[in-house]
Amino acid sequence: MTIVPWIVQLVAFFVLMSIGCGILAAARLPLTRRSVLLAPALGTAAVTVTSMTLGTLGLAAHSYAAILVAALVVGSAAVLRTKLAAVARALPPLSAAALVAASIFIAAPSFLYGFSWVGFANEDMTRTAMSGEHWRAHGLTEAVSKSDLIWNTNIASAQLGNTGTLQAGTPDLVAVFMELTGIGTFQSMMPVVVIAFMCLLAAMGAMMPWRLGDRWVALAILALATSGLIVYTAVNQGADEIIGLALFCAYTAVLPALWRPRASRSWFIIAALLLAGLFELYVPLTIFAVLLTAAHAFLRVRRRRLGPLLSRAALGAAAAALFLNVYLHNVALTATSMLKSGSGPLHDNIKFIAFFIPPGFAYLWGLLPLSSYPPEPAMSLLIVLGMALTAAFTVLAVQRARRGNAPALMAVICLVFFAYFFVRMADYALYKSASYI
Fold this sequence. Notes:
Radius of gyration: 22 Å
Shape: globular
Number of helices: 21
């Protein structure tokens, strides 16, 4: 039994938190419970955006990873040297304990198998790991060969010889992690997944209402940490979606600060950094973020302030278009693919049927395992309970969304897409929506 992998993951998480806190302090923003909890996601965005920028300049991760992280950590330490007491006061002790407990829960296999836990996992994670190795060793300085992209032949279900495009985003983070720790290509995947999982739980805690105390935030973190759907998504899908959700939750927590009359303009910089990281890590959620921002601004901003807001939005859109340039095609392609998901009742290639059948209501709330059915009448009772929870969730989300609550508004947007994908029999999109909601 070994605790080394868990310690490495825990240290990496708090390094990201320190980087995020340093960015907040440098922007002269208050270090509160909310901002400290979203700091790990902010630190992740900073590492990702900087790493990918250096990558586009032709640098491989092995040439800058140590310098980049050291510079971010030293810079954060310099900014925070007089604010350590503020950070300690802002970090809720129960929430911090819940995050550590959650890391033990999801990383439990590593205590037995070390870094070899889920060494090859599935095809998506293998491709991510192999892309990360290429970014670590070559970056964009060397052309990608077919052997760089081939999927590992030890995967029992792999289509041998199948290749995919060289990924960026998460592989950049994996490359930096590989270089700093010296851990092997495939063995780096699960530690990164655990770190991303902790960032997600912390960011979810940041979305909690301020009036709720640390006790309720910690309870929510523990409840979400044991959510079958979230854990399944983390372990099965790898870090892409989990990191994307972490940045999205952090962005949702920042969103209300953008519309306050006397809010610091630094919040716009923080929001932009989170959005940039979100685009590079998980494009589909960037589209949701844009929809959420527009809807939230419409509900929260008074009519007399709409003019300046629209001018800022136009300036931001122009800057984004200039910054993304050719990558705007990726956003358009993703949005089109989302809307075209499924093919109606005649769709004959459904693989993810869980949320098309009545037990789907119970699956959504973790009342039923995906692997088996309990005997009647327990089965029917759990389905009815799942339907009741879904109905209550919908009513509460609509009520709070009308008041401008950002997480509730996002829930309503998810419900609309959920219904759209259900009608179109878009099975995979429906599964993804369930993990978001």
